[in-house]
Amino acid sequence: MSNDGVNNGRRTFLIGVTAAVGAVGVAGLAVPFVRSWQPSARAEHAGAPVEVDVSKLEPGQRVTRGWRGRPVWVIRRTEDMLEGLERIVDEGVLADPDSEQEQQPEYARNNYRSIRPEILVLTGVCTHLGCSPAYNAEPTPRLDHGGFYCACHGSMFDLAGRVYRGVPAPTNLVVPEHSYLSEDVVIIGSEEGDTA
Known about the structure:
Elements: H1 8-35, H2 41-47, E1 50-53, E2 62-67, E3 70-76, H3 79-91, E4 119-123, E5 134-136, E6 147-150, E7 155-157, E8 178-180, E9 185-188
Antiparallel strand pairs: 1-9, 2-3, 3-4, 5-6, 6-7, 8-9
């Protein structure tokens, strides 16, 4: 077989162009595929720490922020609320008054379940089946000292998120990791600030 009339230069050029176009096509398909393995910006944001300015919270007021796809409550408790926390322990109606379960960081394992007594940080999800309990700043017929009532199945928690005896919820509400970046700013999801 002879190579008469074959332009080897042109053949090499066409093979090179075809290979280059094929490589660009493969890269064009690979980039979106590889990017799909990375978490979305929304997913990254959902786990990112959240800052809350507590200087704007009035006594008894609650603010809700989303963190890791769940509501997190930050509440400024009043003196009456704090006194109620003392009285409710004496009444013996709480299932885990000393927070024996691992539902909070070590620095929140106290009667207030918080770093500072007046500021409470809780995940707003009932530990029974995941409903979001209602916040009652004032006493109600069910909650003599205020607290949280889950209308889904009747679970009750005091104003420190501690579960009452005899309700469906098995454990206290969760206190997420948090710390103070300054006197007025709490950061949820990070212990980079002050926890004392």
